[in-house]
From TrEMBL:
Organism of provenance: Jatropha curcas
SUPFAM superfamilies per the UniProt record, alphabetical: NAC domain
Pfam families recorded: NAM
A GO CC term assigned to this protein in UniProt: nucleus
Subcellular location per the Swiss-Prot or TrEMBL entry: Nucleus
Gene Ontology terms describing biological process: regulation of DNA-templated transcription
Molecular-function GO terms, alphabetical: DNA binding
InterPro entries xrefs: NAC-dom, NAC_dom_sf
Domain named NAC: residues: 15-176
Basic and acidic residues bias locations: 209-218, 227-252
Keywords from the UniProt entry: DNA-binding, Nucleus, Transcription, Transcription regulation
Protein name as annotated: NAC transcription factor 052
Residue segments, region Disordered: 209-252
Length: 252
């Protein structure tokens, strides 16, 4: 299987141990895609890194091949099963030699939660094996980010930059691991661990609520049994009194 090659001019960035490249949607557009389009360095060169972080995202033709043919093995900066690339935008049907991409969702990207300025757009494309009429969905997805042309305004005479705004995109490639059989284990990434802990906390809260409900139900059952027992005792007491009174009448 032929793999897409990283351009020869690309220099691999070496990050310090423990560092991972996992920008938010707005950060990816604000500090990386915008800088790529304008030909600027997104971050001033740091002495500790000794390289410009623009090189952390290589530029390739993402949609020219299947996702498993992308040079993900050369990308070492993201979280587990997550890779970033710059690419040219594709419009219409996106077909590869062995499959096709299908858009499954579209969303807006804003400056921040508090500043609702529309800076870009993101669409999710799922990869399918086979032909569009009878394809099977794979574990691969790509989130494609592009800049809002109305937000990033440039000189009308700067045709080259205006062309980049419309056609240059940032892509986040994701591979979702298929469900594992019971009794198997695997190494987890940071986000996987965070999600696992969050799910465990939710399970614990749900367990506490269930235990609380169970105790309340048990208390209600105890109260009901006590009430039933008292009623039964009162009923038997009344029957006994009535029987004794009846016996006294008979004796008289």
């Amino acid at each position: 299987m032929e793999q897409v090659a990283v351009p020869s001019g690309y220099e691999r960035v070496v990050l310090p141990f423990g560092y991972k490249f996992c920008p938010t949607d707005s950060e990816l557009i604000l500090f990386y895609l915008k800088s790529k389009i304008l030909g600027q360095d997104p971050i001033v060169k740091k002495k500790s890194l000794d390289q410009d972080l623009i090189d952390i995202i290589p530029t390739i033709d993402v949609f020219s091949s299947n996702p498993d043919q992308l040079p993900v093995g050369d990308y070492e900066h993201g979280s587990c099963s997550e890779w970033y690339f710059f690419s040219n935008r594709r419009k219409g049907k996106i077909l590869t030699k062995d499959g096709f991409y299908r858009v499954s969702s579209r969303n807006h990207v804003y400056m921040s939660k508090h500043k609702k300025e529309l800076i870009g757009f993101v669409r999710k494309l799922d990869f399918y094996h086979g032909r569009p009429d009878k394809g099977s969905k794979s574990q691969w997805s790509i989130y494609e980010y592009r800049v809002n042309p109305e937000w990033l305004q440039v000189n009308e005479m700067d045709h080259a930059t205006r062309e980049k705004i419309l056609n240059v995109v940032a892509c986040k490639v994701i591979y979702r691991q298929p469900p594992k059989p019971e009794g198997t284990f695997e190494l987890l990434g940071v986000r996987d661990v965070e999600l696992f802990i969050k799910n465990q906390e939710m399970d614990n809260v749900e367990l506490e609520l269930n235990e609380k409900d169970q105790k309340e139900n048990e208390n209600e059952n105890v109260q009901l049994e006590l009430k039933t027992s008292r009623n039964e005792r009162d009923r038997k007491g009344k029957e006994k009194d009535q029987n004794e009174k009846g016996n006294e009448r008979i004796k008289k």
